[in-house]
Design goal:
The chain is mainly α. It is built from 9 helices and no strands.
């Protein structure tokens, strides 16, 4: 019924399925060919449709998903090398380069920053509470 009203609905459904494939299989070795196969489109047609739907290429989206999961694992104190391979990167240098490009610092620096943040929040907890709460509840006195 909905497909009768929107003749392109099947295309978008297949693009969403391909995105969900990326979300689920980000840790595996996948490429444009694998992803476009999930949507049953040629890779070039799929690339155009994915960019139209999400405003970025499938490769760009895959990189963002991998970096997001890497940040989560690094916050859980997983070793950088292990995280690199757990999220689907083939080499530590490429992971480090992409992580730095996306996050603005290397994975090791990110881990250090997280550790520093945890230490500071234990030492000076009020520093991490919004000022309006501090003033409203009289915690600054």
């Amino acid at each position: 019924m909905a497909e009768d009203l929107h003749p392109n609905m099947y295309k978008y459904r297949r693009i969403v399925e391909a995105k969900l494939f990326i979300d689920t299989h980000y840790h595996r070795k996948i490429d444009l060919e694998n992803i476009s196969d999930q949507a049953c489109f040629s890779k070039y047609h799929f690339l155009r449709l994915f960019k139209q739907a999400y405003g970025k290429s499938p490769h760009r989206y895959l990189t963002e998903v991998r970096i997001g999961h890497a940040k989560t694992l690094l916050r859980q104190q997983q070793p950088v090398t292990e995280v690199c391979f757990l999220v689907g990167f083939d080499s530590l240098p490429s992971f480090t380069h992409l992580f730095k490009r996306e996050v603005g610092m290397t994975p090791t620096a990110y881990v250090a920053k997280i550790a520093q943040h945890k230490e500071e929040s234990k030492r000076l907890p009020l520093r991490f509470v919004p000022n309006c709460f501090v003033e409203n509840f009289g915690w600054d006195k």
